[in-house]
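May I ask you to comment on the folded chain given beneath this request?
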Amino acid sequence: MTMEFGRRLRLGLFGTSHGPEVGVTIDGIPAGTPIDRAAIQADLDRRRPVGRRLATRRQEEDLLVVDGGVSDGRANGSTFRAHVANTDVRREPYDKLRDTPRPGHADYPARVRYGEAADLSGGGIFSGRMTVGLVIAGAIAKGLLRPRGLEVVAYTRTIGPVDAAAPEGMDPAEIARRSREHEVGSVDPAAAERMAEEIAAARRAGDSLGGIVEVRAYGAPVGLGEPFFDSLESVLAHAYFSVPAVKGVEFGAGFASVRLRGSEHNDPFVFRDGQVRTETNRAGGILGGLATGMPIVARIAVKPASSIAVRQRTVNLATRQPAEIVVTGRHDPCIVPRAVVVLEATTAAVLADLALVGGFLA
């Protein structure tokens, strides 16, 4: 079993939700690259549930431990390895459900694929806990991209029925600032309160909610990406769908483009400050799999969390009889707010890898 991604900046995830640790190995970080541990820790803290009224009660410190690949604060050309410890682990609720696969989880297909010995406590390797490694890698990738003028930001666009888009012209620093003022991650204060109310109502009902995270990347060099199988959309979508709970991805106008004619969907080219740009950005900053110089815009649909305290129908694999379960333990009623930094990090890792492949970071 391998959990690796990337061509030049190659990531490998390791650990399990309730094992001793989770983390990442990274090959391909250019030697001499500064490794900002404080920036990595700040992003890990954004992912943590601690301090969030509306998240899981699992209290992990997620303190960064760098095991190798760094000398005097810089990448030394060898494999980078880092992890965080799993300290607040409770296996009992999962042991009780061993023979009754949880609806919405990977329990059943994983047991068939890997056998009864597979460690699926807390979701095992299929848990959102594994995204810790993505966040670490993304923080390093952002450090590679930022000196080249490329910024990646993400925010909560939708939770349940509440939707609030950041204005197209909003500065990325402003998006980042606003999205971090409220735990749900919205840039609109009024919408953030409505989103929080929806999540709280779902929690009181023992249920969960999904939503949409919007990611924007500013300053991508024109031509970034590769045609066909390694197009910007292809590689980003591949990476997004690797994140647990992601069920849909669109770029630019996305699915709404099917209701437009070509004359409405095409983005007219113009000169702006001496640079070729487009008047609109329905293409989401990508044409033919290559960056156009406009902001790359992606929206990622995150399903409702599957662990809910509502009675659900399943089967007992030992008795081969119908069964009902109520999933207990500590779970997020909505994982969208914590997915914001994960999807931001995933985007940065992909862009850094493609920039290295294309020679943009040489």
Q: What stands out?
A: The domain at 4-357 is CATH 3.60.150.10 (Chorismate synthase, AroC fold).
